[in-house]
Design brief:
Layout: H1 25-59, H2 90-110, H3 117-133, H4 141-155, H5 189-196, H6 203-232, H7 236-244, H8 247-254, H9 260-275, H10 279-292, H11 300-304, H12 312-338, H13 345-355, H14 361-368, H15 372-398, H16 404-418, H17 431-435, H18 441-461
Helix pairs in contact: 1-2, 1-3, 2-7, 2-18, 3-6, 3-7, 4-5, 4-6, 6-7, 6-8, 6-9, 9-10, 10-12, 14-15, 15-16
Length: 470
């Protein structure tokens, strides 16, 4: 009679024993206990994210650091349903809440495989609803969107040629950020055309409408990521948690009503279409995303370069055909409505990027360190590095040496690191691609990037030589 050895080999012969042996009950009990503890930790993390979101929504109307500068103090008609709560977090309280939110987000994503899909998806929906109930958060962009729409719809001014200063007598004008009053629109013709429909709305109704569009687009992105994760063999619950619970996407993106989320929904719809081998539709949808904001067009070559192996040429041709037809349609729309105005779009984008902001690496060097020349030099070097990285990654995808979604994810990361103007909701560009990546490093980097960008924002909330009064 043989006695099983430690690795399932017989003590006498060393031959592999293929018989089934009883499982070690102690080890299994420890494993089950660890899984249960991880699940409880994940549930607590979900509760922490929701609690932080609730506090932000209730306190936003009376916490200046959560409000755009142009609405401090906020009018009652813009404060939202929690405007009467009279809760002020002050700087210290806000930092504590945002730190808690990020920590709970990171824990929830790590424990997502132990959480039920229902719990994660309901938490995502609830968090979005809370941000929708808050007043416009942290950015004046929703007012700029309406200004460009009113310029065109009510005053006949071309938003691609003029800044909002041409409607200085409009009641909306005082709500526009000072940086943007002389800047023409930097958004694509599809979004500008869509905004025309919202031009007649009141200031409060328009802000709520743009926030609602951002919330619906963000939830649609989560649904598309879920579907794409199943097609890719990735855990859909974890992928949805990485995107849908992200504080920068929900608080800054949805809370601020940013059109990046609408762009992202179309980009993800194109990605899913390509994964489903509906290549013409995929190429067209990515171009439509670029019609919202040109950033989406950066990722189109990676979709077109995908499909190495048999049928690659045919697939690339189909994606190119779909994209070309969509480009033609967007061009017809743009020039029929705005004449030659959209031709100035690239110049406007170059101007706004060259001005930069302190959240980016070049901007931090120029403004916070006071080294203007060094900041500009750093911007040039980083721009060259980004372009070289883009070409290198695209070549690897084309040659079948890298998955195209992985390549697009690394490019999104490169854009965030090297951009001269980097705003917190731009992290949304990276998150869905990281959630679907086969390279697990992108998962971890996406969470770290969220923490880094959130940390930079927290520094901005602390006034120079001021305390953290509660």
């Amino acid at each position: 009679m043989s006695v099983p050895g430690r690795l399932g080999a017989t003590a006498q012969t060393g031959a592999l024993d293929l018989r089934t042996h009883p499982l070690d009950p102690t080890r299994e009990a420890l494993r089950a206990g660890g899984a249960a503890a991880r699940a409880r930790l994940g549930q607590l993390a979900l509760a922490g994210v929701l609690l932080a979101g609730l506090v932000i929504s209730i306190a936003a109307a009376h916490t200046d650091s959560l409000l755009p500068e142009s609405v401090r103090p906020i009018p009652r008609w813009l404060a939202g349903p929690f405007g009467g709560a009279d809760v002020n977090l002050h700087v210290g309280g806000l930092i504590a809440v945002l730190v808690l939110m990020f920590a709970c987000y990171a824990l929830a994503v790590q424990a997502a495989e132990r959480l039920s899909a229902r719990a994660v998806l309901m938490s995502i929906a609830a968090l979005h609803a809370l941000m929708l109930l808050a007043p416009p958060l942290l950015s004046t962009d929703v007012f700029s969107y309406q200004a460009y729409a009113r310029m065109w719809a009510l005053y006949g001014a071309n938003p691609y040629l003029n800044g909002p200063h041409v409607i200085a007598l409009d009641p909306l004008y005082p709500f526009i950020g000072a940086k943007w009053v002389s800047t023409p629109t930097a958004y694509g013709p599809i979004f500008t055309s869509f905004s025309y429909l919202l031009a007649p709305l009141s200031i409060a109704a328009s802000a709520l409408a743009y926030k609602a569009v951002a919330a619906v687009a963000s939830l649609a992105t989560v649904a598309l990521v879920w579907n794409a994760a199943r097609l890719r063999g990735v855990d859909p619950v974890k992928a949805a948690a990485l995107v849908g619970l992200n504080p920068l996407i929900v608080v800054y993106g949805v809370g601020g009503g940013h059109n990046d989320l609408l762009m992202l929904a179309l980009l993800m719809a194109g990605l899913v279409a390509v994964l489903q081998h509906r290549d013409r539709a995929g190429g067209a949808l990515v171009v439509l995303g670029a019609g919202i904001k040109l950033t989406a067009g950066v990722f189109l070559p990676f979709a077109a370069a995908s499909g190495g192996g048999l049928g690659a040429t045919s697939r690339r041709r189909e994606i190119t055909i779909g994209a070309s037809v969509a480009v033609l349609g967007v061009a017809v729309l743009a020039f029929s409505l705005f004449g030659g105005g959209p031709l100035h779009l690239l110049g406007t984008l170059h101007k706004t990027q060259s001005e930069g902001d302190w959240h980016s690496i070049p901007g931090f060097i120029s403004t916070r360190l006071g080294l203007g020349g060094a900041g500009r030099a750093a911007g040039v070097v980083l721009g060259i590095a980004c372009a070289a990285t883009y070409v290198w990654l695209l070549r690897k995808v084309w040659r079948g040496e890298m998955d195209w979604i992985d390549g697009a994810g690394w490019v999104a990361l490169a854009l965030l690191i090297t951009a001269s103007s980097m705003l917190p909701w731009y992290v949304a560009w990276l998150m869905p691609l990281a959630a679907l990546a086969t390279d697990r490093r992108l998962w971890r980097i996406a969470i770290v990037m969220t923490g880094v960008v959130q940390g930079i924002q927290l520094l901005g909330y602390i006034p120079h030589n001021a305390g953290l009064g509660l």
